[in-house]
Amino acid sequence: MSQLDPHGREQWKTRSGFMLAAMGSAIGLGNIWKFPYITGENGGAAFIIVYLVCIALIGIPIMLAEFSIGRKTQKDAIGSFQELTPGKPWFVTGLFGVVAAFLILSFYGVVAGWALSYTTKAMNGELLSIPAEQMGDHFGGFIGTSLSPILWQLLFMFIVIVIVVKGIKEGIEKWNKILMPTLGVLLLILVIRSVTLPGAGDGISFLFSPDFSALSTEAVLVALGHAFFSLSLGMGTMITYGSYLPKNVNLPTASVGISLADTGFALFAGLAIFPAVFAFGMDPGAGPGLIFITLPAVFELMPFGQFFSVLFFLLISVAALTSAISILEVPVAYFIRKFGWTRQKATWILGTIIFLFGIPSSLSLGAWSGFTIFGLNFFDAVDFLASNILLPLGGLLTALFVGWALKPKQATEMADLSESTIGKLWIFALRFVAPVLIVFVLLFVTKIIQF
Ligand code: TRP
Questions:
Q1: I need a surface site. Which of 57, 193, 330, 369 has the fewest CB within 10 A?
Q2: Which residues line ligand 1 (CB under 6 A)?
Q3: Atom 8 (ligand 1): residue with closest C-alpha?
Q4: From the CA of 387, how far away is ligand 1's center (Å)?
């Protein structure tokens, strides 16, 4: 603990360590599990184009806003707002973030547990011995069991806690430096396998030749919501990671680089999945079961399928791990400052509470499926509240805060921009473009709830 900043907090050891950690946060289940299936459900290439526009117009400006807030104040998601606008209610933005972190990690850990379990099932040969047409029942049976998925979720949360306990340099930075390059290599091998299969071309054109008639209003809103989720925005994650930054990292470059890496990774995940799905004549629009049901069936037909299935589920588990770490760090950083807890105490207590809160999510897919809130089971209700309400709200407030509550001169300085054209465009995006679009999403969401 040699290089402490004035508040007694750690800082990233290297710029690349920070970049990898932020990429590790962004690249997760969102890229490998969710992006491919929502692309599949919403018509492919046209959806991707809308998604890219959302990343450029809203995602990158808000990421830059979050990094700027964090680095300027060197405080957690709540403390940073209190420091910049003392006595004002802006800190509720961070409060939403801490609550969203609890909720998101609770079900994220459940899905990550499935990925861990599928990794071992792939390794011991059990997965590929299941007849393809029974893959759906197998998956449904597994996630609907009471005990087993919870034990896998427990194992996953335990690994997350053990890394976060070690702190920024020795825990989060060190592990991201190992895991992120591993992730890149795993994905590359899978992409090469997939695009070289006979018949892969249909999957490639599904991803890259747009059919705009397949695009609905809902698809546009899904794209925007997913841009937030995938870039880890609206929850104070990037504020918290930004708060461990020294002054000498250029924030606009970092924001663009991290967003490009995240988007590139999602597209590559699509390239690893769709060519193989099409090559073996499977349905690309299978929804959330795409990677747990459709893909194992694809691996069964592929030469060396078992080897590739192990790589694939390992890929998902590792990607989920580096993201989960960043989610847990949000409340941990807050509790350390606010209540003077040690990192050890904060990580173990908060990690355990989040694990416990995930149990009903897991059970709601089986034993407790009869219990619903607004017609949603507990898992979907928590996902919906966090991803479709709290994250957009957090993003909206963050944009309004930097766009309107701070002076443009101060804001652009914090972001390493001058009041030149780019600085003005950034402020304009935060003042008008992002808020208007996010409000549309939120209005649409309230429409769904009334149903
Ligand atoms: N971005 C991660 C993914 O794509 C998930 C994630 C990590 C996240 N931190 C977040 C989502 C903060 C929302 C907010 O899987």
A1: 369
A2: 25-26, 28-31, 104, 229-230, 232, 235, 237, 323, 326-327, 391
A3: 232
A4: 10
Say which residues have a Cβ less than 8 Å from residue 428's Cβ, sequence separation at least 6.
none
Return the CATH number at 103: 1.10.4160
Q: Which residue, among 172, 143, 150, 151, has the nearest Cα to 160 in the 3D structure?
A: 172
Query: Along the 451 residues of the chain, how does pLDDT read in single tens digits?
Result: 444 444 458 999 999 999 999 999 999 999 998 999 899 888 899 999 999 999 999 999 999 999 999 999 999 999 999 999 999 999 999 999 999 999 999 999 999 999 999 999 999 999 999 999 899 999 999 999 999 999 999 999 999 999 999 999 999 999 999 999 999 999 999 999 999 999 999 999 989 888 888 788 888 888 988 999 999 999 999 999 999 999 999 999 999 999 999 999 999 999 999 999 999 998 888 877 889 998 999 999 988 999 999 999 999 999 999 999 999 999 999 999 999 999 999 999 999 999 999 999 999 999 999 999 988 999 999 988 998 889 999 999 999 999 999 999 999 999 999 888 999 999 999 999 999 999 988 888 766 554 4
Q: Is residue 6 part of a domain?
A: no
Domain that holds residue 367: 15-445
In one-letter notation, the amino acid at residue 367 is: A
Atom of ligand 1 nearest to the CA of 228: 13
Q: Which of 160, 321, 327 to mutate to test the pocket of ligand 1 (most atoms within 8 A of CB)?
A: 327
Question: For residue 7, is it within any domain?
Answer: no
Measured in Å, residue 391 CA sits from the centre of ligand 1 at 10
- The Cα 322–Cα 267 span in angstroms is 19
Task: Give the Å distance between the CA of 421 and the centre of ligand 1.
Answer: 31
Q: Closest Cα partner for 38 from 185, 229, 278?
A: 229
Task: Tell me which long-range contacts 288-291 makes (C-beta under 8 A, separation of at least 24).
Answer: 288/33, 288/37, 289/136, 289/139, 290/33, 290/36, 290/37, 290/40, 291/32, 291/33, 291/36, 291/37, 291/316
Q: Compute the distance from residue 374 Cα to the ligand 1 centre, in Å.
A: 25
CB distance 45 to 283 below 8 Å: no
Atom of ligand 1 nearest to the CA of 100: 14
Is 231 part of a structural domain of the chain?
Answer: yes
**Number of domains the chain contains:** 1
In a domain, 171, yes or no: yes
- Output the CA 327–ligand 1 centroid distance in Å: 7
Residue 25 CA: which ligand 1 atom is closest?
Answer: 7
